[in-house]
Amino acid sequence: MKDADFSGCDALHLYFDGELDTVESLAFEKHLETCAQCRADLAEFQQIRVDIQAALSRAGASQGLRSRLDDALDAEERPVNPRRWDWRRLAVAAAVVAMVSSGSTYFLEQPSEEALWTQGVVLSHERAMLSGHEIDVVSSNRHTVKPWFNGKTTVAPLVPDLSDAGFPLVGGRLDVPIDRAMPAIIYQIGPHVLSLYMQPASGESAPSLKKVDGFSVLSWKQFGFAFTAVTDADGAEAGKFQKAFTEKAATMP
Q1: pLDDT of 235-247, one tens digit each?
Q2: Residue 193 in contact with residue 231, Cβ under 8 Å?
Q3: Distance of CA 230 to CAs 4, 83, 132, 141, Å?
Q4: Which helix (H) or strand (E) holds 72?
Q5: What's this model's pTM, rounded to 2 decimal places?
Q6: Please, which residues have CB within 8 angstroms of residue 222's CB and are 6 or more apart in sequence?
């Protein structure tokens, strides 16, 4: 598919299967930002995969399970676009076939939502760095960066100015870590870039640091958000950023 167009609906199944390279994925994700149908289909495919994984992690993929899955799909109204229907059925079929082979049943360890989210933000940050597309709106003014996301995502981000603490705001980027567009606020940590993702969440949790593929990933909950900071700076610098962010955000109106 050397000359294929990866910026349209026909690339959906390749993106879902992880068959696109970094440049091709970026082209499709740009399309995803403006195509509500593809976003809905992608979310549906991912939910089907999660449901299948959950079922197969609890019990073997029996003939009864496969029959019920097939009956449930047949009971739904067939979409107008047969390509979307075929891929919806294929998503289920692929998951079942992967688990059942030669009469033997294999069990799947279902990745947690946290693990999927962490993988998604790390890959999104890395793609942005490799493509040179770190920033969509370039500005050190929080009153320019924050309103830029209006109408582009349902998440209204917190955007404190941390230049006094040594972490200058440099802009923002619209990203799709999992299945919907959301803001990534970009800060500078010395020579390093940090992408701060946030999604609405209740409760609070202390910062938790992980190393994923060479990146420092710091997560915490506060101010009605679940925050995840991704950077190739070391964990100590990421921790200093988190402390400065928390102190500044606590004083914002």
Answers
A1: 999 999 999 999 9
A2: yes
A3: 32, 37, 16, 21
A4: helix 63-75
A5: 0.60
A6: 204, 205, 246, 249
